[in-house]
Amino acid sequence: MRIAFFVNSIADEAGFFTTTSLALAALGRGHDVCYLTPGDFVLRPDDSLLVRATSVKGAKAKKADTFVAALQSDQAKVETIPVEDIDVLFLRNDPSQDADERPWAAHAGILFGRLAADRGVLTVNDPDGLARAQNKLYFQEFPEKVRPKTLISKSIEEIRDFIDEQKQGAILKPLQGSGGKNVFKIASSKEANLNQIFEAVSGEGYLIAQGYLPDATAGDIRLFLMNGRPLQRDGAYAALRRVPAKGEVRSNMHVAGTAAPAEITPKILEVAEMVRPKLVGDGMFLVGLDIVGDKILEINVFTPGGLPDIAELHGVDLSVDVVIALEQKVEMRKNYAGKISNAVLATL
């Protein structure tokens, strides 16, 4: 089986990325691995779709940093191949990273992912599902019971009124965005710097204001779902608690958040079950939920990270389980010869 990982940029990949962990798991099970970026697709006049695939000569399962260094070095080879030579196209890019400087690249994975799926390549997460999830409005389509109280607006007056209604304060963040960029906690609408924060965040478009959840001071829980259900092996869940650094409202790892073990309670499983139907319906194969108490702060469908940290915390590499699931889907696709849609197959 050949798995192609679609990423923003090979030069920006790192050993601690979940994509790297998935690639090593695939190599460990004897599969071929290659990487694609937004500029690597070619649609020829005869309607054939090709990709410029980057791989490491003779790559084997090895240390993550060594693998990434080889991928970014002269050891890597680039070859143009028919997309049909790929069994799985795994879309693992973050559109928000390209939205400002390379807007043409932000949606390349979705656009060409559709073409790949039409040609029989298992494409996950399903491109049509990802198209519906390109900003945080997607979150509003899930049950109100699992969402914090939320306002979406570009009006400073609306936002001030909303903050005044929240006894614990509010969180402000851009509708488009990821990774904790431009996320602010506002205690009161009378804060002196609210106007400056509003100007900074609204420059990126609409704002989301959410009622602050006090439990968030202890961090959130990142829980992976695969095929709509919590990813786990023998009771070890693909989950961790992301603990924010002192004085930080964000728990993202790249802003000094740290990983700690997470207890997966019946309440958390109930929250996960509540969002399962839509995730399955949208063909969302691998998803990360960020949970505080009985509320979900984010549903990460593009590049949920944390599997290497989870492996270190629990001694269980659940990336292998993800690859095994892909193997099973490829076998199903062969058995049914196109009679099952990509969106359905993605979450079977």
TrEMBL record:
One of its GO terms (cellular component) is cytoplasm. The gene is gshB. The keyword Ligase applies. Belongs to the prokaryotic GSH synthase family. This is Glutathione synthetase. Residues 136-327 form the ATP-grasp domain. Keywords: ATP-binding, Glutathione biosynthesis, Ligase, Magnesium, Manganese, Metal-binding, Nucleotide-binding. It comes from Endobacterium cereale. Its cofactor is Mg(2+); Mn(2+). Pfam families: GSH-S_ATP (PF02955), GSH-S_N (PF02951). Its EC number is 6.3.2.3. The lineage of its organism: Bacteria, Pseudomonadati, Pseudomonadota, Alphaproteobacteria, Hyphomicrobiales. It catalyses: gamma-L-glutamyl-L-cysteine + glycine + ATP = glutathione + ADP + phosphate + H(+).
